[in-house]
Amino acid sequence: MDNVPQVVKIVRLQSGEDIIAGYVEDYETELITLDNPMHLIFKRTTRGTVMMLLPWLPIEIIKNNSASIFSTDILTTYDPKDDLIAYYDKIIHHPQMQEVSESSRNYSNYFDESEDEDEEEDDESMEMSMEETTDMLIRKKNNRLH
Questions:
Q1: Do 55 and 95 form a contact (C-beta atoms < 8 A)?
Q2: All domains of the chain, ordered by start, with CATH?
Q3: Strand-strand pairing, 74-78 and 8-13
Q4: Residue whose C-alpha is closest to residue 101's, from 42, 19, 38
Q5: Cα–Cα distances in Å, from 38 out to 11, 78, 106, 111?
Q6: What angle do CA 17, 29, 75 make, to 5 degrees?
Q7: Per-residue DSSP letters for 67-89?
Q8: How far apart (Å, rounded) are the C-alpha atoms in residues 95 and 93?
Q9: Which residues, listed in sequence order, are joined to residue 43 by a DSSP beta bridge?
Q10: Are 37 and 20 in contact (CB under 8 A)?
Q11: Tens of pLDDT along 2-41?
Q12: Nearest alpha-carbon partner for 33 in 48, 23, 41
């Protein structure tokens, strides 16, 4: 399937989530397969807009980074700009992303309760904190369209 050029789409779900992914539609089953889905998150500030791409699936614990959803779960689809497709492609093929998805063999890394102070400082200095991201996702979930 790597030889087949894949269509990349932005999918807005009924929940209001925006996902960028390889998009394959099966008209017979009305299922959509999303390959390497990434959650698109936007934060608009007075200094401009910040965009983040986060894995939509728990890539640390799954074999294949793809999901099938019903077409009725989709509100609409968009064709992303070429530079966004290039950025998305760079992210999903980045060695660090590949390492995360392949590191699922050692779960103890994810449950280590001791964190370095440097890591905590880095987390605090992120443009959008994890708490802000979580709050935004909860707001989106509560503002479902249907």
A1: no
A2: 8-103 (2.30.30.100)
A3: antiparallel
A4: 38
A5: 10, 14, 23, 24
A6: 25
A7: EEEEGGGEEEEEPPPHHHHHHHH
A8: 6
A9: 50
A10: yes
A11: 444 589 999 999 999 999 999 999 999 999 999 999 999 9
A12: 23
Lookup result for tokens 């707001």: 139
Structure token digits, residue 138: 């909860």
Which amino acid does the sequence have at 51?
Answer: M
Tokens at 125, concatenated:
């200095």
Evaluate if residue 59 carries a pLDDT over 60.
Answer: yes
Say which residues have a Cβ less than 8 Å from residue 55's Cβ, sequence separation at least 6: 37, 38, 39, 65, 97, 100
User: How far is it, in rounded angstroms, from Cα 9 to Cα 21?
Assistant: 6
Tokens representing residue 43 in the block: 């934060």
